[in-house]
Amino acid sequence: MASVRRPEHLAPPEVFYNDDEAKKYSQNSRIIEIQEQMSERALELLTLPEDEPCFVLDIGCGSGLSGSVLDEQGHYWVGVDISPAMLDVAQDREVEGDLILGDMGEGMPFRAGTFDGAISISALQWLCNADKTHHNPVKRLYKFFSTLNSCLSRTARAVFQFYPENSNQVELITSQAMKAGFYGGVVVDYPNSTKAKKFFLVLMTGGNMPLPKALGADGESSSVSYSKKREQLDRARGSKGKSLKNSREWILEKKERRRRQGKNTRADTKYTGRKRSGRF
């Protein structure tokens, strides 16, 4: 994916999705078709109970295209988006869901256990940008995932279709999701196709479970689980949810924070965090 074609490199979402751009999402038949297909796949990965209406959070709901898919499936939903222009189009379309203007990087403002599930289409990658001087992608991702975890029921899933720029971005996103208490990983549909390839982050609140199978994977697994990292993190954490001080995990986390801050940090080795015997 060439960087010049990635909208998150051009302007913040609330600026990029202005009146003209927002109208495209309600008038361009190709965009509508793609959005609906990805929404249907996200809903499939959400594995909500069949023939039972659920209450779903639509993050980055835009003009309400994904919400229309939720409507067709008989679910109730609340949509959050940072673009006023997009929400205006959604209101003009008279969508069924409730709409909230909000920045996902500032957290989800809902009570604990409110939703049976959450979906998000083409929005998550925007959190990897620092659009303002006070934006820190790591902190914003953690704030988002931790508050999302809180407002989901204890058996819920959250499914994000997103466009990662590279493997480092995937690692950044998944690591913050695991630290916020989620289990899960990434499902890559049609991994060998340039146009059809799609990334879905599937997060679970109720413990570690097998990831769904990817579409078009030719019999090979295209699902990458990150739950083992979460389990290792859990074992290393103390009662307050932090890694035990001076443990290997605590030292590695500290060194990683220093690297993100641009500070000189020694390289990790097999001796990192190993206790000395006291003998010379």
Automatic annotation (TrEMBL):
GO terms for biological process: rRNA (guanine-N7)-methylation. Residues 228-237, 246-255 have a biased composition (Basic and acidic residues). Residues 203-277 form the 18S rRNA (guanine(1575)-N(7))-methyltransferase Bud23 C-terminal domain. GO terms for molecular function: rRNA (guanine) methyltransferase activity. Keywords: Cytoplasm, Methyltransferase, Nucleus, S-adenosyl-L-methionine, Transferase. It catalyses: a guanosine in 18S rRNA + S-adenosyl-L-methionine = an N(7)-methylguanosine in 18S rRNA + S-adenosyl-L-homocysteine. Residues 56-131 form the Methyltransferase domain. Belongs to the class I-like SAM-binding methyltransferase superfamily. BUD23/WBSCR22 family. This is 18S rRNA (guanine-N(7))-methyltransferase. It comes from Frankliniella fusca.
